[in-house]
Amino acid sequence: MMAPQGCRVVVVALFWLTGLAGCRRAPHFQRGDAAAVVVVQRPRDGGPAPPAAEREPNNTPAEAQELVWTGPSPGSAIKGIIDRVDPGKPADVDVFKVVIPGQRLAVSDAGSAADLLATAKRLSVVVNPEPGLALALDLLDEGAAVVKAVTAGPGDTVGLPNLAVLPGCTYYLRIKAAPAGKGRSAADAGAPAGNSYQMAVALLDFEFADEREPNDRSEAAGDLAWQGRSAIATGLYGWRRDEDWYRLPIDAIEPGWVLNVDLEGVEGVTASLGVSDSAGKKLVAVRGRKGERLSLRNQVLPGAAPDAGAAGAGRWFVVVRAESGFDREHRYVLHVEAVLPDGRSRFETEPNDDAAHASTLADGTTTGYLSVGDVDVFRYSAAEPRELDIEAIPPSRVRLKVEVLRERDGQVLAESSASKARQILHIAGLACPAEPILVRLSQGKHDGNASEPYLLKLASRLAQPDARR
Prior knowledge:
The model is unreliable at 1-5, 9-43, 182-191 and 304-313 (pLDDT under 50). By secondary structure, the chain is mainly β. The chain has a five-stranded mixed sheet. A five-stranded mixed sheet has the order 4-6-11-8-9. A five-stranded mixed sheet has the order 13-16-21-18-19, with no helix packed on it. It has helices spanning 6-13, 107-110, 113-117, 309-312; strands spanning 29-30, 37-38, 52-53, 65-66, 75-81, 93-99, 121-129, 135-140, 146-151, 158-165, 170-177, 196-204, 222-223, 225-227, 230-237, 243-249, 258-263, 270-276, 282-287, 294-299, 315-324, 327-339, 346-347, 359-360, 364-370, 376-380, 386-393, 400-406, 412-417, 425-432, 437-443, 449-462. It folds into three domains: 6-204, Jelly Rolls; 218-339, Jelly Rolls (Sandwich), CATH 2.60.120.380; 346-467, Jelly Rolls (Sandwich).
């Protein structure tokens, strides 16, 4: 048997361990478009029995009302009230005890920490308040320490859809009025406002490659489900600003290889996709529009930071974030693949938003993406004076701007700007000195397209005698 704090150890410290051992079915990977695709038939979360009434007093874990599991797929439901109290008096808090069915194991009993985590069940909690009632929902461990806390605005549903919990362990759900603040109100701020809520709790199985909350920081990052050089993860945007971290085993990627990362869109959610280093510093990130698919291509991973120490060596992260909106029903799918760049086709290498990180540009066609707020910089070097013809073909929703600059002093040699989206830009017969130049692609304010690439075409020829003067 574990000590009382054992469940806390698993919930907070072991989420970074692989979820592969907990899979109940084999994955089906499909090749195509440099991404891994998983096909899984996922059952819908079942509804619990009719709600039971909340019983007071239940303001503390010691007084908590224990949930009763019902049905073949364990579920429970509560109809409760957040009482309004006079100013200066303690606020009403409702605490519920959740005992996870099954045998409780210690690491020594399970064989390893990863084996123990593989026994975890998925706890889904959804709380629906009356209009005007803004709620906060906390998950506590056996020692009453907060594992995860979320809040919502007046009348908005608040939930924790995919928490990993261990059989035989005890947890607590705490419901209270959300504090007043920007974007939300206290339960008694304004009238009329309800004071009742209904909570539905379900205990489910994790499916292949499911994220396991909490995973909102590097220390709690989950593992991607790898098969060869392809990997996937599926997750939920469970609340506003939900952030999910996944570890990248860059030590296992051969030198010269790059990563392609794709995030399938979820309708109604504006997402961002990024890569951070072992210290949590963001290397590159893209942000899309609602429901838009996001892509990072030819992501170059430098070596582990020399000061990261043994614990941080080789750890880099893919970060998925809900910038606006949430969806506790429809999962996003994250695809990652390590590839060897094809010498017959060229792609921008990220990050490349300044001269220090410029991608190499050569004759032919180079492809890239301009997400909202993104800038791409390319370096072209000529051993002797040449004339350049540059053509830039933007995707939809992008008003493109092309600038050609001399690298040593930033002098603008040529530029062209589009007056409308998807306008093709041309710079013809540009005299290029025998020194490095930069080609900078940017876009209009609020423009961007993270799912459709642009084409940058370059043709060079020896400069004519009059162009050398």
